[in-house]
């Protein structure tokens, strides 16, 4: 029998601390500590809700991934330029991209990262 449908709420989840090491970020400016809730984390996908305060971090993208900003203002900078995101905006990333994420306000986002991962 297939796994059940997984559901969650962006406002009622049990958020726990996520360190820069767990998230794969390199701090650039400010405090990159975040709180998050994983909805799915297995060998094929990692998806959840994350909330973080104003800061700037750098990440070399390891897997295909996406984010949807639920609230806040986020600036993405890569070798192609600057992209500003706000509530409702989506961004998609490919392996090998070097991206700087700059949160201008508190940001709430849904992230999805495609595997493979070690379960």
TrEMBL record:
<dbReference type="InterPro" id="IPR014710">
    <property type="entry name" value="RmlC-like_jellyroll"/>
</dbReference>
<dbReference type="InterPro" id="IPR011051">
    <property type="entry name" value="RmlC_Cupin_sf"/>
</dbReference>
<feature type="region of interest" description="Disordered">
    <location>
        <begin position="1"/>
        <end position="23"/>
    </location>
</feature>
<dbReference type="InterPro" id="IPR008579">
    <property type="entry name" value="UGlyAH_Cupin_dom"/>
</dbReference>
<dbReference type="Pfam" id="PF05899">
    <property type="entry name" value="Cupin_3"/>
</dbReference>
<feature type="domain" description="(S)-ureidoglycine aminohydrolase cupin">
    <location>
        <begin position="53"/>
        <end position="111"/>
    </location>
</feature>
<protein>
    <submittedName>
        <fullName>DUF861 domain-containing protein</fullName>
    </submittedName>
</protein>
